[in-house]
Amino acid sequence: MQIAILLYEGFTALDAIGPYESLSHIPGTSTVFVAERPGPVGNDNGHLRVRVEAALDDVPRPDVLLVPGSGRYAEQQTNPAVLDWLRSADRTSAWTASVCTGSLILAAAGLLTGRRATTHWYGLAELGDLGALPTDARYVFDGKYVTAAGVSAGIDMGLALSGRIAGATHAQTVQLLMQYEPRPPYAAGDPATAPAGIVAAARRTLAAVIG
Amino acid sequence: MQIAILLYEGFTALDAIGPYESLSHIPGTSTVFVAERPGPVGNDNGHLRVRVEAALDDVPRPDVLLVPGSGRYAEQQTNPAVLDWLRSADRTSAWTASVCTGSLILAAAGLLTGRRATTHWYGLAELGDLGALPTDARYVFDGKYVTAAGVSAGIDMGLALSGRIAGATHAQTVQLLMQYEPRPPYAAGDPATAPAGIVAAARRTLAAVIG
């Protein structure tokens, strides 16, 4: 079983690495990071450069297809090479998955039309504009499509998807290996419950990046 | 303010990226990944290769020093180049931090002697053997030293440390940007509460890697 994680210039590192850390533990799988062009691919603030060795054409039929998000997701929504590859790889994938604004790329490829899906809280309206049925949940399964909310939600999604693929005993063991018993230091992770001033500050930050 | 994240062959990706994702948002900071030798550095299972551009000598005085863990931490506990750099960088750091078995490397460098610290649950006894005061907590502050439990605990630690450095309003905003409202799909992240069979399976996996 092959797991392909799409990287592109400006990807958010935790979007990719959160689910990677659990999915890569599934027995009998190999994981490959794939990009439009092999070579170094930089994350959103340019600190991290991943040396990607596989081009899109090198990975035509992954079993699991995962698209991380980015503040720069719009560049991929209009990138024919990426959109064509997503549509083609999705034809034979067992699972097509995303984290954060990665679902806005999948939706732009037409893969989420009429499906329940989620994304970063800031992007839920756009997800609906793109034809999906926006769902405010940590992660959403609709058939073989599984989408996670913003950034850190990919960790929860990755473990849940691991459970679907390899069973709950395996996924629980990986959760314990990762010591995933989260204790967020603040109660600020959800716009519905975070302090109003924090929500306003986050919206300003995102508006400056995304519009 | 400079944040230095040490990478070495076999590092666990989420150990590094979890806290990176919050710490890199601190205003006025630059983050640098640093390794003994510049060039590609592979993670524990070799899927991810990070192109590191800074050698240890290029980053002599980081303000924040962060050491991720690995199943292969023992190689670094006896690596004089890394140990010397940690001791030297620690002399002027404002914060010296670790995730998972990264604290076992800090302890091997003599930096945690007599200090309260934590690590992956599987490594707490070794942390005591190395002279620290093992503390079973999600993350532990002792003066400028902050250590996190296994793998995913670096996310909580990174946000808590962001709060110490840049204030709670900033850290809460970053938590909301990351949508960090975790919903683990299973109750298996802590050996004290995970099902006994899961704990036994995780111990077998770790014994095969670490001993």
Automatic annotation (TrEMBL), chains A, B:
InterPro entries, from UniProt?
A: Class_I_gatase-like, DJ-1/PfpI, INH-QAR
- Highest taxon of the source? Bacteria
Boundaries of each DJ-1/PfpI domain copy? 2-161
What is the name attached to this protein's record?
A: DJ-1/PfpI family protein
